[in-house]
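Cross-check.
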Amino acid sequence: MAFRMQASVPEIIDFGDEPKHVLDAYGPDVHRPGSYAFNCLLARRLSEKGVRFVQLFHMGWDHHGGLPAAIKGQVQDTDRATAALLDDLQARGLLDDTLVVWGGEFGRTIYSQGALTETNYGRDHHPRCFTMLLAGAGVKPGLTYGATDDYSYNIVTPEQKVHVHDLNATILHLMGIDHLRLTFPYQGRDFRLTDVHGNVVTDILS
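Predicted model, tokenized:
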């Protein structure tokens, strides 16, 4: 279904037709435009209108200091609204063909960065291990794939190691795209989004 953005914007951002129990599920911030909760409900409404790609951002995860207080605020902002979005999509039959990808730019170890006190410390970037959440569109529900050591530093399940190219290949596969065939010409060579790497992680597919 085509989506006429200019004609539908007022309708899409007006949540007046949403049942109270749906609004309550996303939490009180759903009424504040620009909040993560508001954007989660907006994402569901856009998906219902046939918008094929929706991207949400939530800033403020770079906790090199002030982690104990900051992480609580981030979790309060995101956990309830994310769960509500997944439940809402599933209840409306949209999760069957909607892929939800939730992640960040870096992993984090349990190591402390900076001065360590009871109320203030931070964590640095960590490139070896990071967590992504995938839901819907043919992903097995309730599955945890891969694990790290107790320090969140190295992968302890090498048979379940997922490189970023594997992740991209799998996301493309779930969208119906063969990453081995999707190429574009650049400087005399056919490139693909996963370069010369990447395998679809079939173990996570239903």
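The mean pLDDT is 91. The longest helix spans residues 67-91. Passed to J.P. for a second look.
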